[in-house]
Amino acid sequence: MNISKLNTRVTLPNMLLISGNGRNVGKTTLACKIIAQLSKSVPVTGIKISAHFHPYSDAGLVAKNKHFVILKEQNISPKDSSMMLQAGASDVYFVMAQKEHFNKALNELLKLLPEQALVCESGGLHEWIDPGIFLFVNLKNKPVEKTHLLEYEPIIVENDGKNFNIDFEAFQFSNGRIQLLK
């Protein structure tokens, strides 16, 4: 499957995508709680995608060019991708890509992903992927600033700083699809 610059979208019913209303709203914490729940019954692959480049070593390097880097997380550290691994993900990929070359990074990433439960934290993937579930994290009582994300009809999850208003046990993976049972 090849994503072009045209308005091509890929449907991934096995992916749960998490975006948020900014930094420090609880996206990684939410991803880790969902990974911990799902990994009790099925293998889960975690994905962290960033438009910002961070220092990295070549350990775990999967793909690299001047526009993107894909790493397979191998270390225990406070990094978001490592936290996903510690939460129970069988594999975690950390992708750094310039927004204008995001599709090229996604083409490489899609070659690596198994057909199992995927939990992805990304602020921009919604433009290319139709996930099985799309969650939007916001701090309780804070106005939504990233209103453009609401066009993709996410489930809005509120974080009061300690808890999320969602039942983690309601997440399940079956028949190649991630589901939120109500």
In brief:
This protein is an alpha/beta fold and 182 residues long.
Keywords:
182 residues, alpha/beta, 8-stranded mixed β-sheet, 17% helix, single chain, two-stranded antiparallel sheet, 35% strand
Architecture overview:
By secondary structure, the protein is an alpha/beta fold. The protein contains 3 helices and 10 strands. An 8-stranded mixed sheet has the order 3-4-5-2-6-1-7-8, sandwiched between helices. The longest helix has 12 residues, at 27-38. The mean pLDDT is 90.
List the helices and strands and how they pair.
Blueprint lengths: L9 E11 L6 H12 L5 E7 L10 E4 L3 E5 L7 H8 L3 E7 L4 H11 L4 E6 L6 E11 L15 E5 L11 E4 L2 E4 L2
Parallel strand pairs: 1-6, 1-7, 2-5, 2-6, 7-8
Antiparallel strand pairs: 3-4, 4-5, 9-10
- Rough outline: globular
Order of helices and strands: EHEEEHEHEEEEE
Helix content: 10-25%
Q: Biggest sheet, open or closed, and with what strands and sense? A: 8 strands, mixed
Model regions low in confidence, pLDDT < 50 over at least 5 residues: none
Structural class: alpha/beta
- How much of the residues is beta strand, in percent? 35-45%
Could you state the oligomeric state of the chains shown? single chain
Radius of gyration: 15 Å
Number of strands: 10
The end-to-end span amounts to 33 Å
Give the strand order, joined by hyphens, for the main sheet: 3-4-5-2-6-1-7-8
User: Total number of helical segments?
Assistant: 3
How would you state the average pLDDT, rounded?
Answer: 90
